[in-house]
Amino acid sequence: MRASSTSAPLNSRSIYVATSAEVDNNWRRNRANRWYKRGAAHDDLTGDYAFQRLQQKWFTPEIEPKFRFRPEDKFYAIGSCFARGIEHTLAQRQIPVESAAPEFVKLQPVNKEVTGLGFTNKYNTFSILNEIRWALDAEAVFPLDSIVQVTESTWFDPHTTPTLELAGLEETLERRALMQIVTKRVAQCRAVIITLGLIEVWRDCEVDVYTNSIPARQVLKTQPERYQLHLTGFAQNWANLEATHALLTRYGHPDVRIVITVSPVPLLATLSKMDVVVANTYGKSLLRAVAQEWAAAHANVDYFPSYEIVQNSERAAVWECDLRHVRSDGVQHITDLFLKKYLD
């Protein structure tokens, strides 16, 4: 059963409460509930114990979805790497994915190895909320003053991902308009996939808005007091997800279902004082906890463990040599499992 109401103070809720009878039922039904048992063969790769399953090339967690999607459902993915991966897999199966708009594919990124869809990546809960709010809430006006001039002829929109060449103001505004046109399509989608990535976020103090990406280096040099780096906390990210849920409930599909996951891709670099490995662990742990609690608070939100799949699969199989990018086989394993569990 779900715990106390979401109206209870954030620091006084249990996310799950069960009677002794329910606990007994959990114990009997859950095949994946034990890590180890004395006498169990360590080399039995078909066993149910975690220490056996974790020796497989690809970790495959037991998943019991709250809900399922239909092939005719429209999908919208927002976030970082997993969002793009699920878009690609769904599109291959001829399932409508509104976020993978052909308008974005036509954009020409600087790195020719990626598509224009990378332009849409959202790395933090602030930018996810912002984009949905600007698209769906008529009273939420995009802060044009947050688009900054970099050179005499180029401008930068910090609410996008800098995969494209910097452009003049007119083209930058056209890209912004395109982003909002496509994001509006989330309202038509019964299936919304949200991927959380980072807790290190920049705030534009002049406009009072958090950004998606690091401000352009030239702007940081010429306007050093304008931006602040924030290492955001649990309550901030929770509030962003709650506001996102409220928007999708008010303006979205009448039967919207949301799957939230955490990107396994680590920080490229930290701008805090921490070791990047420590900073990454802290950030992913915080987002992982927020995601679980948010899913527990809403019947139409479920958590999908893409982060755990990558972290517990064979390192050589899942990671590229930089130990940051997930190999295509790993992405395929994740998306195949998602579709197997969530799609009728």
What do these coordinates show?
There is one protein chain. The longest helix has 22 residues, at 276-297. The protein is an alpha/beta fold and 344 residues long. The relative contact order is 0.15. Helix 5 (125-136) runs parallel beside helix 8 (234-251) and helix 8 crosses helix 9. The chain is built from 12 helices and 9 strands. The chain starts with 19 loop residues before the first helix and ends with a helix. The protein has a 4-stranded parallel β-sheet, sandwiched between helices. The chain has a 3-stranded antiparallel β-sheet with strand order 6-5-7. The chain has helices at residues 20-29, 50-53, 81-92, 102-105, 125-136, 169-183, 217-222, 234-251, 276-297, 306-311, 315-318, 328-342, and strands at 75-78, 148-149, 155-156, 191-196, 200-204, 209-210, 227-231, 257-262, 301-303.
Please write out the topology.
Elements: H1 20-29, H2 50-53, E1 75-78, H3 81-92, H4 102-105, H5 125-136, E2 148-149, E3 155-156, H6 169-183, E4 191-196, E5 200-204, E6 209-210, H7 217-222, E7 227-231, H8 234-251, E8 257-262, H9 276-297, E9 301-303, H10 306-311, H11 315-318, H12 328-342
Helix share, percent: 25-40%
Give the integer mean of the pLDDT values. 91
Strand order of the largest sheet: 1-4-8-9
Strand residues, percent: 5-15%
Sheet with most strands:
4 strands, parallel
Describe the global form: globular
How do the SSEs run, as a string of H and E? HHEHHHEEHEEEHEHEHEHHH
Low-confidence stretches: 2-8
Counted by DSSP, the helix tally is: 12
The Rg value, from CA coordinates, equals: 21 Å
Given helix and strand content, the structural type is alpha/beta
Tell me the span between the first and last alpha carbons: 25 Å
Number of strands: 9
